[in-house]
Amino acid sequence: MQQSTFTMHVIFTRAAVVFRSGYIAAVLVILQSCSSPGGKQHNNTDTGSIAIPVVVSRTQSLQQAGVLVLSGSAEANTTTNASFSVSGKATTVVPKEGDAIDKGVLLAALDAASYQYSLDAANAELMKATDVFNRATIMKNRESLTEADYQKATAALQQAQALQKQATKALHDTRLYAPASGIVAKRNIEPGENVAMGIPVFTIVSIQPVYIKANVPEAEIARVHKGQTVQVTIPALNRQFSGTITEIGAVADAVSRAYTVKVTVPNKEQQIRAGMIANATLQTNASSTRTMLPGTAVLHDPDGTSFLFIADSLKKRAYKRNVSIGQLAGSEVEITSGLTGSELIVTGGQQKLQDGAFIEFKAPHP
């Protein structure tokens, strides 16, 4: 009985060994088939990753002449609000928004009937007070009037004179005249409307000369000086104007780290209007070196970070590197930081890459 039990144990043990050997052999066959696809793709023997074809180019550093281009907008050199010093109903409104006007021209007028009545009454009171004063003077000279009564007549005359002047001014103020020459930027009144005193009904901007306001980056502010000549292009007019830098901000913006610069531009024809976009170009003594790349080489993370891929020709690898971009020049973009100027940059196939990806060059690299 013991011998038969031993015989059965040996049989089962050998069967298990056979089963395990067959399972291992099957796994080896599967692994071998996966590692040998039989295609013509190139593999990295170190990691097994497939090489991604890419096109590369070497960075180019260009020596740029001392030219600084700024973008900004035109601003009025003065802004004046015109308002009535009396209230009433508007009967006449002359200029429209955008009209060029001269100082002293009529802007609007109010119904003056009630103010004329007040002036007529003031004139009558003045005549009465004047007559009383004249008779009081005669009586005083005859010593038949007390000093107190004479002073009372004098005070009444002075009060009547003041009221007459006030009524005269109120009547005059029913007509509003332009306080300055310029362009009507806003008209807040129409005939028939009731107008309150002190409320601006016209806004007049002076644009002769006009200011061009632009922001200069902190890295460029040392190249800008008062008195520099600036060529100003107004795209809306398709014209160039010559201007001069007259103001440079003393404090940089807390967010953009840029300084505000004002360029004064003669505008005798008043063609440049406030709010027009302007491009200002100025020559500087300093020159700069710019690193330029095809714009398509630069990619962006979801958070907006700009990056590109550097190709290592020895390791056949592409490595991600964050960069900062500057101005655009046609299809190329300026790289302001992140490169030394001698790297191989992936300019084709970069959309398929990840940091450290195995690559192969489609064409001989520079």
Automatic annotation (TrEMBL):
Q: Name one GO molecular function term.
A: efflux transmembrane transporter activity
Query: For this UniProt entry, what's an example GO CC term?
Result: efflux pump complex
Question: Which SUPFAM superfamilies does this UniProt record tie to the protein?
Answer: HlyD-like secretion proteins (SSF111369)
Which InterPro entries does this chain map to?
Beta-barrel_RND_2 (IPR058792), MdtA-like_BSH (IPR058625), RND_pump_MFP (IPR006143)
Identify the Pfam families for this entry: Beta-barrel_RND_2, BSH_RND
Source taxon at top rank: Bacteria
- Please report the stretch or stretches of sequence annotated as the CusB-like beta-barrel domain: 209-285
Provide the Multidrug resistance protein MdtA-like barrel-sandwich hybrid domain boundaries. 86-205
List the PANTHER family: MULTIDRUG RESISTANCE PROTEIN MDTA
The UniProt entry's sequence similarity note says: Belongs to the membrane fusion protein (MFP) (TC 8.A.1) family.
- Would you tell me the protein name for this molecule? Efflux RND transporter periplasmic adaptor subunit
